[in-house]
């Protein structure tokens, strides 16, 4: 009996309040992001708010902050989209791929500046990326070759074949890096939902699908807002 009581005295039970406090202790906060292997990656949040460009990026744009005036930026945007359209036709891409490339081009230059990035290299990267997104991939060599041809036509020079020299290799590497940069800046959220089908549907409901002027105007207004 004596040994039993001495054992109890040597190991007293914790007070009820202390036990309750220990049980109610909050768990350690989880580290933000996703752990893959031994590396922590940030999470990607997809909401409807992220599909629209915030007003603070619309004006001033990164290019305007670098001293480029609005008219010059608008001209570069138009030229970039025209190049993507013309290149897409020569590459025999579906129209949806060209439209996707133009949207990616616009979105990228609301994050980055025309002053710091070549619009032609970015245009090549956007159409190359768009061809993959729309499941009509083209060789990067063909993309560069087509832009080389268009550059000669703009300069009103006699077209000559693309020479696969060190300059070509440098351009190819720049396009690959630009494509990665576009993906990074857009957070890999490159799916584009085009409203062209909706435009056609509305015109059919309004029984105006035969009005070519209205159809063309609606189409052009949309492409100008992309």
Can you walk through the features of this model?
With 226 residues, the chain is an all-alpha fold. The chain contains eleven helices and two strands; from the N terminus they run H-H-E-E-H-H-H-H-H-H-H-H-H. It has a two-stranded antiparallel sheet. A hairpin with a 2-residue loop joins strand 1 and strand 2. Helix 7 packs across helix 8 (140-154) and helix 10 packs antiparallel against helix 11 (212-225). The longest helix has 21 residues, at 70-90.
Layout of helices and strands:
Elements (H helix, E strand, L loop, with lengths): L1 H9 L5 H8 L10 E3 L2 E3 L13 H4 L3 H4 L4 H21 L4 H14 L10 H15 L6 H15 L11 H20 L10 H10 L6 H14 L1
Antiparallel strand pairs: 1-2
What are the main properties of this structure?
mainly alpha; 3% strand; 226 residues; 59% helix; disordered N terminus; two-stranded antiparallel sheet; globular
Low-pLDDT segments, ≥5 res: 1-9, 19-23
Beta strands, count: 2
Fraction of residues in β-strands: under 5%
N-to-C span: 89 Å
Main β-sheet, in a few words? 2 strands, antiparallel
Q: DSSP helix count?
A: 11
Overall shape: it is: globular
Helix content: 55-70%
Give average pLDDT, whole number: 80
Physical arrangement of strands within the biggest beta sheet:
1-2
Order of helices and strands: HHEEHHHHHHHHH
Q: Based on helices, strands and strand pairing, what is the structural class?
A: mainly alpha
Rounded Rg: 29 Å
Can you give me a brief rundown of this structure?
59% of the residues lie in helices and 3% in strands. The chain has helices at 2-10, 16-23, 55-58, 62-65, 70-90, 95-108, 119-133, 140-154, 166-185, 196-205, 212-225; strands at residues 34-36, 39-41.
């Amino acid at each position: 009996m004596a040994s039993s009581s001495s054992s109890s005295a040597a190991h007293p039970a914790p007070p009820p309040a202390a036990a309750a406090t220990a049980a109610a202790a909050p768990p350690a906060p989880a580290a933000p992001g996703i752990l893959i292997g031994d590396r922590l990656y940030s999470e990607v949040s997809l909401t409807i708010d992220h599909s629209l460009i915030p007003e603070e990026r619309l004006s001033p744009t990164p290019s305007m902050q670098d001293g480029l005036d609005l008219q010059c930026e608008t001209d570069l945007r138009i030229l970039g989209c025209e190049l993507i359209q013309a290149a897409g036709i020569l590459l025999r891409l579906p129209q949806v791929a060209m439209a996707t490339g133009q949207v990616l081009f616009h979105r990228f230059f609301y994050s980055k500046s025309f002053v710091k990035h070549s619009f032609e290299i970015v245009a090549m990267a956007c159409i190359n990326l768009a061809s993959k997104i729309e499941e009509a991939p083209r060789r990067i060599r063909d993309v560069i070759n087509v832009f080389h041809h268009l550059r000669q036509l703009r300069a009103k020079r006699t077209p000559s074949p693309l020479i696969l020299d060190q300059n070509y290799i440098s351009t190819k590497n720049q396009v690959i890096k630009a494509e990665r940069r576009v993906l990074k800046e857009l957070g890999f959220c490159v799916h584009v939902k085009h409203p062209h089908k909706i435009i056609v549907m509305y015109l059919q409901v309004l029984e105006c699908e035969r009005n070519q002027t209205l159809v063309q105007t609606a189409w052009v207004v949309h492409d100008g807002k992309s």
